Amino acid sequence: MTASALIAPPVQADPTLNRLAQAEARSDLTGRLVSMYGLVGDVLQRAELRLPELLLCGPTGVKEAASHLLAAGGKRVRPLLLALAAGACLDRDKSPREPAGLPLNDQLVALMAAAELTHTATLLHDDVLDDAGRRRGQEAARMRWGNSVSVL
After folding, report:
1. CB neighbours of 65 closer than 8 A, spacing ≥ 6?
2. Distance from first CA to last CA of the chain, Å, rounded?
3. Largest distance between two CA atoms of the chain
4. What is the pTM of this model?
5. Tell me: the pLDDT tens digits for 70-123?
6. Which terminus of the chain has a lower count of CB atoms within 10 Å, N or C?
7. 43: Cβ–Cβ under 8 A, 6 or more apart, which residues?
8. More confident of the two residues 140 and 105
9. 97 φ/ψ angles, rounded to the nearest 5 degrees
C-alpha cells in the first residue's frame, strides 16, 4: 500500500455548519438572522406563501387589518425558530428531506404560518393598548379599521 492510499480524502464541509459559522462570525443581529434564514429559506418561503391563504377564512375587517400588517414585512423570527427546531429534532435517516434539510411536511409549514399569524394578532392588539399610530413604518391598522377590529 502506498503512502498516498493511507491519506484520507478531503472531507467535504457540511454547508449547514458553514452557514452557522458565518452567522457566528457576524457581529450584527441582522447579519446573523440572514445567515440563519439561509439554513431554512425554502420552507420559510412556503410558510410565507401560506399566510394570505389562511387569512381568507377570517372576518372581513380582521382579514384586511392582518393583511395590512403582514404586507409591512417583519423578521419572521417565530417561523424561523420553528423551522430550525424541526430540523434539529428530526431523525435524519427516517425523514424525507427538502434541500434545506427540513422535512417534506405541510404540517410544519402550517404551524409556522399559524405562529406568524398569532404574533401578528398580538401586534394588532398591542397597538390598541399602546394607542399607537404607526407600526413597521406604516399607519397602524387600528387607525384605519378601528380598535374593535384590531382586538378581534
Report:
1. 124, 141, 142, 144, 145, 149, 150
2. 75
3. 80
4. 0.71
5. 888 888 999 999 988 888 777 666 555 555 555 557 888 989 999 998 998 898
6. N
7. 83, 98, 100, 102, 108, 109, 112
8. 140
9. -120, 150
